[in-house]
Structure prediction request, 721 residues.
Amino acid sequence: MVAKKDEEEELARTPLQAIILADSFTTKFRPITLERPKVLLPLVNAPMIDYTLAWLESAGVEEVFVFCCAHSKQVIDYLDKSNWFGQPNFSVTTIESHNAISAGDALRLIYEQQVIRGDFILVSGDTVSNMSLSQALKEHKERRRNDSNAVMTMVIKQSKPSPITRQSRLGTEELFMVIDPETKQLLYYEDRVNLKGYLSLDKALLTDNTSISLQNDKQDCYIDICSPEVLSLFTDNFDYQHLRRDFVKGLLVDDIMGYKIYTHEIHSSYAARIDNYRSYDTISKDIIQRWTYPLVPDVQFFGNSATKLERQGMYRAPEIKQSRLSKIGPFTVIGTGTSIGINTEISNSVVGEGCSIGANVTIEGCYIWDNVTIEDGCKLKHSIVCDGVTMNSGAALEPGVVLSFKVVVGRNFLVPAYSKVSLLQQPIKQDSDEELEYADNSSGIPEVPSISGTLDKLNEEERTELPDSQEYDVGDGGVGFIWLVSEGGQEEELRHSVAPIPVDKLVAIMQITNDEVDIPNEDGSFLPPSGELGPDSITNDSNEDAEDIRDDSIIFEREVEATFQRAVEEDVTDDHVILEVNSLRLSYNMASADCAGALFYSVMKLALDAPHDSPNELYKNVVTTVRKWKKLLKYYLPSIDEEIEVILKFEEMCLESAKEYSPLFLQVLHHLYDQDIIQEEAILDWASEKEGAEESDKVFVKQSEKFIQWLKEASEEEEED
Prediction:
């Protein structure tokens, strides 16, 4: 008993440690990562790894070990020159290896060095989070005290996949997990790509557990709280290479050792990992929109250069030169030392430091890194432009383009959609993208020479073996090679790009999805995509059903609002929004009235969030906003029932979430009538339904009495005629 107490006291004195696996060589970010490690790629206004380190420091971690594979020298040099070394109460140590080709190899090497002395946090160097670790650590330690086999706690977060693409907003595949709803123990883990069209569960999951919850609306944050046994398990099992595919799944099916993995779900905090270009785009937008606070552009932390937050989510660094006739739109970041020419428009984009942008340039939804030159008349849309790139006058980038370091695009040259252009020629032998979570098969090969010099530094043998078909130029005066997309790779480019998936592609995916047939169970029933299963899972409890419906309604409204907000920010067409909302409607099994109410709420909230100093200015915002989105609103108002739902939703807003609208109820209602959005029949039916209500529910009916009376008289006159 005394020995156990001493051991617990010793563990309590052990500093909280973390391991960062810096997978600096991933095929999903090629050709960029042939020249620079992924963790050093800029994310808004700081390298990725700085976000990870800043979060760990704020979360109370005291010792961090950064494991480096390919491009390890660049990572070590960066950290050596940064302010991370020598911080009080926060030490950063690098561990280098050129032989490790997987997460398993990395963890085995760390185990051999005997640097981990207790429970530790395991993350990748592309993790962005602001979550507190205290509650997750507390749960982990309590479980460990009661059960020494509880070796890992995985952090998860709700993230319902798109009903069209079956991907998360981060571009990752739909994930299926089975979790014990009482203990939060993980019982099953599989992503959609490995399911081959159907989900098969071991019957033992039902027989050995009184209740299980099958989830497909959770995101794996790739933040793991591990006991020291995790390292020894990798050492004992050399076939463990992938952290999820081998280790997690291996423990879940191992009935002999009995090791257990648990989950910790976060709700209000942020946590995500940059796994592909789409997640790079999504997380960048989340940072700009301040979901990651305090890790945001206008707050100084190690590695970033603070900028000033202005209205509509615009950030500008000091010492920029901007023409008075240029326009910088909302949710845009402009780095220090950048110049912007006359009549240039930039929106929903990040522009790095020291860039020169000419006149009459259009940049929309792009990531322009440092020291980029964009000459007059260029057009860029939803693309990534790396350091030192030059775009000659009149050049254009179609959506999804990636220009790697120091590429030169020729005058008036159009780079086709989803192209990747590099000074390095495309390797003849492509690595398969069986990506280990933190390092791929190529992470053990020697580093590719830096492109900081001339083309003569490229490997001569590689260049001579290049097929002629790959030697594409990039226009007059251009320097660079367009990499070919492998057969069948076009779909992956669409799904993982920073560019939104085109509407025609979404329609095609929906048609394919609608043609699929669900596979029934042996008894003819269908397994629900998410929900609690068990002996008492079928219930007639109307209260529980009502609660589930309410929860779905709330989540549905939030999803519609988020979809509408993205449409506003990215200037998406009405048709695209309708497609997205329809898919949400099918996913949540909602009626047309639910769509009408949710969209009306989103439109009115947009007007409310716009600058205004008086009720009159707020009303003008409403007029402008309703005029712009009139077609979208009317699409979901096919009958009087939906129109009444809109009036009821507006009543609810005036009483609860948007009381500023209360004195304007009549004016707004009258405007909706004038715009033929709400018909007189809907208004009269709404007023009629309120006749038997309590006085407190008649506030807005009384406010509208004269208008309602006028409508009644007009209606009666029409009937007489």
About this structure: The radius of gyration is 28 Å. Confidence is low (pLDDT under 50) at residues 432-471, 516-550.
